[in-house]
Amino acid sequence: MPVISAPQDFNEDDLYVDLESFAGHPLFLKCEGFNFAGSIKLKAASEMVEAAERDGLLRPDSILIESSSGNLGVALSMIAASRGYRFLCVTDSRCNLSTRLLMEALGAEVHVVTEAGDGGFLGARIDHVRELCASDGRYVWLNQYMNPHNGMAHYRRTAPAIARQFPDLDVLFVGAGTTGTLMGCARYFREWHRPVRIVAVDSVGSVTFGDTPGRRMIPGLGTSVRPPLLDTSYVDEVVHVPEADTIRVCHRLARRGFLFGGSTGTVVSGATDWLAAHGDRDLTAVAIAPDLGERYLETIYQSNWVHDLYGEHVLAQRTAAAPSPAA
Ligand SMILES: Cc1ncc(COP(=O)(O)O)c(C=O)c1O
Fold this sequence. Notes:
InterPro entries: Cys_Synth/Cystath_Beta-Synth, SbnA, TrpB-like_PALP, TrpB-like_PALP_sf. This protein has helices at residues 20-23, 41-54, 71-83, 97-105, 120-135, 148-165, 180-190, 243-254, 262-278, 303-310; strands at 16-18, 28-31, 63-67, 86-92, 109-113, 139-141, 171-175, 197-203, 237-241, 285-289.
């Protein structure tokens, strides 16, 4: 029986959904949404805050500040509340309303950037963080985009948890945002006892792997500025997924009773297509699901939002039949 005294002390690291009947090939989905922050970013947040405390960067009057599309912001709001720091999150207008309210409920201050600059929304958020840091010495910016402890969290925790459960792992599908999860897992498996193919999954319109910038409305994956943590020599392949496919996969999973977040739809879509093109049935394949679906009720799971952005027919195309009731 786990008994905790700080919210960041609990994280379910050993839960997988068997997606073989969904993907048409064996595929296990590692669920990272079962902790008090509701996402994989809890691990990055804990690792970065602990390192900053060890290095003496955080003092009792420090104000943590971070640019986040939402999930890191929630995780930092929770840890800041638990450890007695103030926290200011700089996000943008694509951040889900419920995610923003969650941060505020945990005592964080939230600034929403509404104009994208030359570096897109991400560039505008980072400019705002820099201005605030220059205005007051109490701000401490952990900078998830450059902080090595972001990737280290996954090198130390996410990848070993997968390795423990799948000693015969052949291929790992990881979504790319800051690329902390991707790089941490890829570095761990590069040193492992057998080769693992690392497949990065990104959104169409993200510049991370050199794609042309384009509209992206689903937070979590993709960037408008190339992530400094990324070292492509660790990545074997990249799959780009259009957001319309992300939406379809999220809805298909929901019809099976699994309500996941947008980036999970992207990763599962990319993994399904990759396995259909390359997979032999004996491959051991794992994909990472960064969060759950409740934060996306007013967006991905709301038909007006979907129809306005992706067209009336987006959910009618390429939609496989729902499973028939079990005998
Ligand atoms: C829902 C979701 N998916 C994926 C990611 C990407 O993870 P990473 O920043 O480790 O690349 C994030 C990061 O914020 C996220 O919030």
